[in-house]
Amino acid sequence: MAFPDAAFEDQRAAFAQSMGVKLDKRTGADVATVAVVCTIYFINMLAVITMIWNRNYPPLKAKCVPLLASMFVAMGLCFVGDFEANGHVQLSGSGLSNCRGIGIWVHLVLGFCAISGMCALRSLMLYQVFCRNLPCRGLKFYLPIAAYLTLIFTYGIVTMAVNEKNAVYYFPELDLCAADTPYKTATVVLVWVTQGAVLVSYWFIRNIRSSFNESREMAFVTAASLTGLISTTIIQYVVPTYPLLLPYRMTMSYVTQLAINTTWWGMFAIPLFNCLFRRQKYLTEWTAKLRQDGMQREYRVDSSVGMQPIPDNAAPKTRPSFAHKESDNNNFYYSNESGTRLCAPSDSYSETGHISGHESAEDTQITCPAASSTNNARQLV
């Protein structure tokens, strides 16, 4: 990114003064803001490469690496939209002056809304597996996803169909994207609706009982995204000309990116760190927790000495793991074949599903207490 054109910035400042509006010229501080966030995304890219390289490491695989990688792409798109919307870079003479294409489709639909949607999707998958004891498929699973996609894509299509002056448009004299007030309000409402989807999805998994604290993890993720959204909404309405003012546009960019990156890292930071620095020890501890929960078969890890992943040819044929079947859900590791029950730890486990350090993978069995699927689901929540 080049330093701002001084002559061009003088023209912007003169026009703003003629309108009676204060304008802070783009300076090295704007360049530094973009550079800092680019550095963060370079680190994020290294994290994604590491996750993909170690995608078969069970604690990481349980976090659904494809979903996290997809979120990284959406975060990058959101970042591109951020430095366009917040006025950090010169828009004229580049594709960034396409305010509807970049500002709505890249920044909003494929960026922020996609991030919120994937956070909600993760909660939905956890709910489907841990609370309903069902695989991640079926009408009740796909219907909310379809409704969410219909909402955000309809919004994007309508934005492209209406006159740009009634939506978002390029203001050449100030070299900024401007939005019609009713449209701006509608956009903020849409953003809060997507955040509402995250909150609702978290509410459904709030009582999940597991040693891996999935509900607490999602609570942290939800709190981080909610805090960032509240802060940026306040700035947008208290200081509507924030892209013209250096302190506010920097605050908007840093708060947004801090919230997004905290949300993303909160989903996988612990297993990634341990994969790099405590690989075998953490795997042993992780598998021990599975054994305590009675869910090692659902994660396809061996309960024998050493606690190594179960080879595919050693997996019990009577209880195949849904995560390793060739299906639409083969990337999600918290999985369970339809009709197979996931049981919460209980006193009866030591009697019916006792795991001995000398048992082979084929001999180790977990027997769930006899109960209906509904009653068994209630044990988990």
From TrEMBL:
<feature type="transmembrane region" description="Helical">
    <location>
        <begin position="102"/>
        <end position="121"/>
    </location>
</feature>
<feature type="transmembrane region" description="Helical">
    <location>
        <begin position="141"/>
        <end position="162"/>
    </location>
</feature>
<feature type="transmembrane region" description="Helical">
    <location>
        <begin position="182"/>
        <end position="205"/>
    </location>
</feature>
<feature type="transmembrane region" description="Helical">
    <location>
        <begin position="31"/>
        <end position="53"/>
    </location>
</feature>
<feature type="transmembrane region" description="Helical">
    <location>
        <begin position="65"/>
        <end position="82"/>
    </location>
</feature>
<keyword id="KW-0472">Membrane</keyword>
<feature type="transmembrane region" description="Helical">
    <location>
        <begin position="217"/>
        <end position="238"/>
    </location>
</feature>
<feature type="transmembrane region" description="Helical">
    <location>
        <begin position="258"/>
        <end position="277"/>
    </location>
</feature>
<protein>
    <recommendedName>
        <fullName>G-protein coupled receptors family 3 profile domain-containing protein</fullName>
    </recommendedName>
</protein>
<keyword id="KW-1133">Transmembrane helix</keyword>
<keyword id="KW-0812">Transmembrane</keyword>
<feature type="region of interest" description="Disordered">
    <location>
        <begin position="305"/>
        <end position="329"/>
    </location>
</feature>
